[in-house]
Write the structure tokens for this entry.
Amino acid sequence: MKIHLIQYLLFLSIGLIIGTGCTTPDTINHLPSEDDTEIVLEDYQLTENETWEPEKTYIINGTLEIPQDTTLNISPGTTVKFRRDARLTVQGILKIGTPLAQEQVTQLVHLTSDNIGPAPGDWNGVFFDHTHDLESFIRGAIIEYATVALDVKTTSPTIEECTLRFNETAIALDGSDAHIHHNDILDNNIGISTIGRQTRPRIEKNNIAKNETGIHCENVQSTIEHNNLYANIFALRLNVKFDLTVANNWWGSPDPVGIANVIIDGADPGLIAKQVGTVHYEPFVETRIADAGFPYPTLLDRLK
């Protein structure tokens, strides 16, 4: 009888240890209580529309998924940090920052690495996965230290009044009609990469500077006008056999020879491995375009 009692108590103790040490499926990935100022989300999938507020810092570990028919709204002033190789995947709708109908940006959204010593490629970026929506936008955001900060496939968000810096690639467009204007795209390996023959993305009024390659272009239907393309190792690299017209940009110099030296196209057979077309950059602007680029530099100081 004593042996049976000891066995019963032993089994009961093991059951209590297991019960208190494990998490049930119903608790996985749920947001912490509203009292927390730092929220860690691990392999989190939205089950309903959510709005993230600036009073909290959101830390993403693994993949954050926005499924179809679901909207994530990241309010102005919110900080989102991404751990190593984390990613935000969009199959629904993503609204980052200040609504397009609002007159002015007054606070910035900050999407950045969670590493103490951040570097390009720390996290995988925001991936628009063939969503075909017409409502997503990114306005008034700082996006940095990603592999591909905004990887946009077959959807067309507006990317406006943002700073994209210290990424391997800032913006990659594949089959997209995205509007990209009034941004600073700085200090990336590649500023903007375009691919897809049937779409017409509009890249206008941006500062694209201090990148290894400012624009890597395989979509010759792209509209690329009124940008400041300066201080890049190569301002524009054409990588398709068709010609590309990119008139009315400032290239950091009024000298046609200097402009040609920062463009890689069919005139540079020693720097390319396949037949490519010619970039037609005339007429070009002879002085810097004053109203191009990110219009709120004082807001950046608040993030330092």
Observations:
- Helices lie at 2-21, 256-261, 297-301.
- The CA atoms of residues 71 and 93 lie 5 Å apart.
- The longest helix spans residues 2-21.
- The chain has one domain: 37-301.
